[in-house]
């Protein structure tokens, strides 16, 4: 690290890379942008539903929806940024083929076609929004989720993000198709250069774990000198129904045994068994940091200010009563 790097970190804040997709990554980025302008979102590219799925199928492009959400989370607080954020998130409603499309998805698609470079196009959208950071796809090509699911006796493979996320069975293991896809080079570089890497929250099998199935990303995550934090979900979703906090942690380790964490952030109300969660955290080298990060209305949504405070404690090492804090 040279003096220029030190100065940049001091002025803009620590270099943080956040991995995930959808609403979980949106929550994490909404918190991180309050702490640093050096945040890079690395976004899953396996979505095959809704507007993203339709555009992916019709144009053969990366699904733009999770990328759009990440850009929106990082946009500037001023009138310009907030206005363009709302425009980006605007979804058409009609009786025709445009119904359900988000304008931001179409804007990203148009720039991809104009520029022929997915990363450059996303950087241009970021400039339009005045975002604090950068948004990158985890791979330059669209991927598919494939899961082995237990249906109460027979086990069967199912394919597709929507199918896996909505399966009535129990997901036992996931893979991606193609099996060894390339990583986005800028994403690998960002991870290797980071001070902190944040994993989660988000749909566990379809937004979080897929990052560890891309070989070059997995290698970067295991070898980077950055410290690593795992943010647990507030509730189990359909694809992880019946799984407690410890099971979530161990399922991630099952897919990437060499990955070690420093901190695991969780809301006390989301921990069904504190002793079990602490043991699972210890198994991957981490401390369990319990902080109230849920919205005050009790809904299953992260409060950006509370989550930012938890991340700040993790970054500065001010844990207090780590396992028992409320």
UniProtKB/TrEMBL annotation:
Molecular function, one GO term = LPPG:FO 2-phospho-L-lactate transferase activity
Q: Which InterPro entries does the record match to this protein?
A: CofD, CofD-like_dom_sf, Gluconeogen_factor
Protein location: Cytoplasm
Q: Which UniProt keywords apply?
A: Cytoplasm
Q: What does this protein do?
A: Required for morphogenesis under gluconeogenic growth conditions.
Q: Which PANTHER family match?
A: GLUCONEOGENESIS FACTOR-RELATED, UNCHARACTERIZED PROTEIN YVCK-RELATED
- Similarity comment: Belongs to the gluconeogenesis factor family.
Question: What name does this protein carry?
Answer: Putative gluconeogenesis factor
Give the source species.
Peptidiphaga gingivicola
Q: What is the lineage of its organism?
A: Bacteria, Bacillati, Actinomycetota, Actinomycetes, Actinomycetales
């Amino acid at each position: 690290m040279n003096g220029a790097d030190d100065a940049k970190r001091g002025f803009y804040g620590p270099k943080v890379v956040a991995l995930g997709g959808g609403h979980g990554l949106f929550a994490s980025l909404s918190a991180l942008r309050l702490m640093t302008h050096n945040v890079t979102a690395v976004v899953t590219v396996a979505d095959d539903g809704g507007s993203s799925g339709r555009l992916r199928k019709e144009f053969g492009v990366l699904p733009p929806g999770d990328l759009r959400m990440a850009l929106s989370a990082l946009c500037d607080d001023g009138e310009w940024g907030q206005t363009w954020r709302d425009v980006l998130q605007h979804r058409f409603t009609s009786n025709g083929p445009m119904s359900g499309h988000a304008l931001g998805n179409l804007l990203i698609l148009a720039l991809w076609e104009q520029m022929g470079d997915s990363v450059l196009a996303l950087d241009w959208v970021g400039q339009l929004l005045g975002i604090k950071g950068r948004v990158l796809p985890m791979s330059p090509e669209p991927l598919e989720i494939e899961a082995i699911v237990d249906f109460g006796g027979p086990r069967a493979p199912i394919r597709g993000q929507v199918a896996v996320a909505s399966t009535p069975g129990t997901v036992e293991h996931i893979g991606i198709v193609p099996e060894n896809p390339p990583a986005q080079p800028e994403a690998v570089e960002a991870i290797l250069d980071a001070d902190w890497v944040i994993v989660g929250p988000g749909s566990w099998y379809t937004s979080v774990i897929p990052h560890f199935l891309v070989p070059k990303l997995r290698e970067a995550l295991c070898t980077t000198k950055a410290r690593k934090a795992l943010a647990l979900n507030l509730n189990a979703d359909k694809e992880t129904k019946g799984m407690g906090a410890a099971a979530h942690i161990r399922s991630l380790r099952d897919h990437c045994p060499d990955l070690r964490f420093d901190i695991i952030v969780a809301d006390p109300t989301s921990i069904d068994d504190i002793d079990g969660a602490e043991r699972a955290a210890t198994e991957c080298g981490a401390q369990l940091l319990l902080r109230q990060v849920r919205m005050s209305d009790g809904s299953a949504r992260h409060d950006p200010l509370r989550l930012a405070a938890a991340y700040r404690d993790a970054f500065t090492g001010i844990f207090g009563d780590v396992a028992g804090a409320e």
